[in-house]
């Protein structure tokens, strides 16, 4: 058991190291930050000097080693773009992204399950056919287009919702939240829908097909024969049995909600880590790009590691394998 | 249960009819694509950063929005009577910083020295300065390595900081990226400007409030008591924010949305030529081009080929089709407000494919050749589209152009490293003088000058004249030198001018302003209608 855990943890660390190495190997293709950092009046001498100062004249392996050296001490360096500590910038930005991801996740889950059950129960109704057709749009339209369409409808034409930003935020310790003000809540609506629409349709279609499958099972038929209320059958017996795959998918999608947030954040000027990353790429802000990529890979690797460890808890076969 | 959930969610969506928040009558909400990078006044010489700092900090001499130099923290500046290498500045008295300190000559000397330090982005503007000294509480002398008639032009973006504040807060040094520590001044501001930075979250919102003890109260309109700045990168969102009334002023209206903004109720466009010219650079210096089809020779080294390319560009078509009218075709790589500009220089050659083909034939390239054009795709207005249009135009005279469009972070290093044969570049002239163009674009590339000359062009006579410009005190003589330099430059034709950009600001009818040719907003001049 312990053996297995140690092996998984070591594998995860290896994955992280490889991700970092690949990232640093790619940074040179993103461009040269020096040109952005020095103004129009720079001389060739300035360019050389700064390149040397930043260690950009070194090979990417050396640069990567220096990054790791700092990273293990919790030092991610200074952002080339903002001249501030990277760790501080990321800590400042992450609440915006996590709040957006949480609201979109809840939106996707609640509406996805609700509509999925509805369309499964009223399989041939007009409303469920309409929902199924509309859901195709959610799957097929690109995120930025949905965002811009929502902005034009709800901000420009109707004037109901803000088109950009987080509204007013309240600072609680190191965490800035938009949940406590009216403008903060309003500002969450359009970006959350934009970000969660794809996941919502995915969950909805998943719930629907699982539900249709379950409703054909014998125990549902027997339950009906026994005269149980339709409601109890649908929700207490059928829905519960469809939720296992839904939970698995939701867990996996949580990571991609945070990753997909990049596009949504750019469209809505949402000041989260996704926007930070896009700007870092445009500026070739290597310290921020490196820290962000490491953060995201730690997150994905962490989720996977947790899942793997859960399997050990659930599946006794893995435990015996460890012993032999 | 689930149905109830659905109903609740729908209800939540429906109850969001937003009541427009009551607006402070004097709040001006401003948005533009780019965010300022830092609050440190000497760390980044870059448009959006300087623009934001212009509200908070002030230079000795300010270029106002009409483009004229105006007294700011210096009330008077004269060359010294005793020494032709010295400029004497009389400083404004009774100026206080936002935190209450008094501005005097010690602060000016400190700030100028800071702007000349190794990590400052502004040091090249002050490269000839050998000494800055205070000769009285409100007089400062700047000594240069030779007579420098245009020194005041270079000071319009050099901001003044308080010496005591900088020393106390360990902000004497400009941001040193390698040091691993951030500088206090990158996140805190203490200027003498009309607005105080009261809160700032980068990429989200910056709030500026009017400075109560500003020296210019009564002199300038100062109509906005509060300015809320939000960068909005996505052009569609930015225009939507203006149309929906969430912002009052956007600095960059995309050309495809101009009619929409102009036609909207309560909104207007303010338009003016920008101090930025767009042109192609040709590698004339290499013996053989790496990315062309001609072996052992450089077709661009032949002036006839360059001239053929020049007249093969249909500048009016680019203006009408690519730019939707929002550009002014150019015949010289110098924006009109720059000293040295004349109408004759800016006259562009007629588009003439027949003559261009004849020139190609004469140069021995009647069969044409293949070449690579490097073009940025996120820097100038419709930059990639301009290049695409040019590809078609050059094809008509037999030149097959392979277009390589890259983001700015990858494009500009090609020019810096001399890895391009043919490229697009835009150039603005913050000093409003031709010398700036010659220094960076025509002088032979060496450690000090010619850093943006990616053409490999080198002309010893021109180099000598360019160096001479900086110390020529006889202004009439100097103008003569500029004119003959331009004549030589036009003769060489190492750059093919395309057009000058036009700025379009979208603004609510409640406010009025003139458009600054450098795209640098100075809110103290804004008036409320």
General description of the model:
The complex is a heterodimer of chains A (324) and B (529). Chain A has helices spanning 2-30, 33-37, 44-54, 60-72, 86-121, 126-140, 143-157, 182-215, 218-225, 230-267, 273-283, 286-314, 316-323; strands at residues 170-172, 175-177. By secondary structure, chain A is mainly alpha-helical. Chain A has a domain at 86-282: MetI-like (MetI-like fold), CATH 1.10.3720. Chain A starts with a helix and ends with a helix. Chain B has 529 residues and is α+β, with helices and mostly antiparallel strands. Chain B has 15 helices and 19 strands. Chain B has helices spanning 2-14, 47-56, 105-116, 163-168, 235-243, 258-263, 303-312, 315-322, 343-346, 353-362, 383-395, 408-416, 434-442, 460-469, 475-492, and strands at 27-32, 61-63, 69-71, 74-79, 86-91, 129-136, 139-144, 195-201, 205-210, 226-231, 249-250, 267-282, 327-329, 369-376, 399-406, 422-427, 495-508, 511-512, 527-528. In chain B, strands 1, 8, 9, 10, 11, 12, 13, 16 and 17 form a 9-stranded mixed β-sheet that branches. A 4-stranded antiparallel β-sheet of chain B has the order 4-5-7-6, covered by helices on one side. In chain B, β14 (369-376), α11 and β15 form a beta-alpha-beta unit. In chain B, α7 packs antiparallel against α10 (353-362) and α14 runs antiparallel to α15. Chain B is globular. Chain B starts with a helix and ends with a strand. Residues 1-24 of chain B have low confidence and may be disordered. Classes of the chains: A mainly alpha (324), B alpha+beta (529). The interface between A and B is large, with 76 and 75 residues. Chain A: Residues 94-311 form the ABC transmembrane type-1 domain. Chain A: This is ABC transporter permease.
Q: Tell me the overall shape of chain B.
A: globular
Instruction: Give the low-confidence spans of chain A.
Output: none
Class of secondary structure makeup of chain B: alpha+beta
> For the residues shown, what is the average pLDDT of chain A?
84
The name CATH uses for the topology of one domain in chain A is: MetI-like fold
Largest sheet of chain A: 2 strands, antiparallel
Strand content of chain A: under 5%
Second rung of CATH, namely the architecture of one domain in chain A: Orthogonal Bundle
Overall SS class of chain A: mainly alpha
Most extensive interface between two protein chains, with residue counts: A-B, 76 and 75 residues
How do the strands line up in the largest sheet of chain A?
A: 1-2
